[in-house]
TrEMBL record:
Residues 12-32 are annotated as: Disordered. This is protein-serine/threonine phosphatase. InterPro entries: PP2C, PPM-type-like_dom_sf, PPM-type_phosphatase-like_dom. SUPFAM superfamilies: PP2C-like. It comes from the Eukaryota.
Length: 369
């Protein structure tokens, strides 16, 4: 199927979405023209998956569908189960009312909870003021694996496009959990998976583009052991008895200047601007960024802790939040709300109020009711 054909279908769907013409599905059921075009879009997704088999294409085509049609119509036509099959497992961006995809829209929010414990989570993502599509992505979900419950939480803050953070959203946790050593050596497994994922991104740069992404990931094992890893300046902060404890390291050009220069790069310090690698990138570690990769690192800093009765809240957020808010301020706000979704929404709202220009995304995990 050619790109011209797919473009025609998508454009047709948009142009005619308000028309009241009716057509019939292959099963003979009458539908509005809008619904018929939706079904065609699903057929395009299937065709693309059969031909290319790439998760990124699923991400792209599902975004086309969600941007052009109301989610309620999707649910009515194909049912929740099929929606879950196509989108939920890989994109992790839904709440109980089927919120639209994060990319390409101004905001997204949702929540969930553990199936066996008291842990709850909420998330909120808000597009910044820059004139480009939303580049922040997240993961927030619980999964059952080999008799264990894992809480998987992440923020991916993209730059120069959204394809790399979208790829991370689909693949990074999967790659971590595929490591055979994960249950005996989580730290080594996380480190290896980060490296393998970055290599995969670089090898597919012709499809994924020249951009990159930060990452902060948190894995909660059976509600007790917490593993946190990061690349770049997205951050994880744990509240212990109300005191903010930063569990990640901000990877900034000034603090890792030696490594950058050893690799043949340089750090610029232009007046009125932040330090940048080769005058371009404001972080010293990132996924992707093929043109700068010879001067960058993608190995994560990794920390772990056993949660006790003093551990109450974990906040993961992109630098759109941390540029305008201290760790302690974020923890203080999050602890005011028993509902972590309300806490996450309040954090992003406060960052906007403080005139944060960047995309703002955060996940709040509450360990006790």
């Amino acid at each position: 199927m050619s790109s011209n054909t797919t473009t025609y279908y998508v454009m047709t769907a948009k142009k005619k979405e308000e028309e009241e013409e009716t057509s019939k599905t292959p099963h003979g059921t009458k539908t509005t023209n809008k619904e018929h075009q939706l079904i065609l879009s699903f057929e395009l997704i299937n065709e693309r998956l059969r031909i290319l088999g790439a998760g990124l294409d699923l991400k792209f085509w599902s975004r086309v569908v969600y941007q052009e049609f109301d989610v309620e119509i999707l649910v009515e036509l194909v049912g929740t189960a099929l929606l879950n099959f196509y989108f939920m497992d890989s994109l992790c961006c839904f709440n109980a009312s089927y919120s639209k995809l994060v990319g390409g829209r101004s905001s997204s929010t949702g929540k969930g909870r553990s199936n066996v414990g008291l842990v709850k989570f909420g998330f909120s993502l808000v597009k910044g003021k820059a004139n480009h599509p939303m580049e922040d992505y997240h993961v927030a979900k619980f999964v059952q694996l080999q008799g264990h419950e894992l809480g998987l939480f992440a923020i991916y803050d993209g730059h120069l496009g959204e394809t790399v953070p979208a790829y991370l959203q689909k693949h990074l946790f999967s790659n971590i959990l595929k490591e055979e050593e994960f249950w005996v050596d989580p730290q080594r497994s996380i480190s290896k998976a980060y490296e393998k994922t970055d290599q995969a991104i670089l090898s597919h740069s012709s499809d994924l583009g020249r951009g990159g992404s930060t990452a902060v990931t948190a894995i909660l094992i059976n509600g007790q052991r917490l593993w946190v890893a990061n690349v770049g300046d997205s951050r994880a902060v744990l509240s212990t008895a109300g005191v903010a404890v930063q569990m990640t390291t901000d990877h900034e050009p000034n603090t890792e200047r030696g490594s950058i220069e050893d690799k043949g790069g340089f750090v610029s310090n232009m007046p009125g601007d932040v330090p940048r690698v080769n005058g371009q990138l404001a972080v010293s570690r990132a996924f992707g960024d093929k043109s700068l990769k010879s001067h960058l690192r993608s190995d994560p800093d990794i920390q772990n802790t056993i949660l006790d009765g003093r551990s109450d809240v974990l906040v993961l957020a992109s630098d759109g939040l941390w540029k305008v808010m201290s760790n302690q301020e974020a923890v203080d706000i999050a602890r005011k709300f028993k509902d972590p979704q309300k806490a996450a929404k309040q954090l992003t709202a406060e960052a906007l109020k403080r005139d944060s220009k960047d995309d703002i995304s955060c996940v709040v995990v509450r360990f006790r009711g």
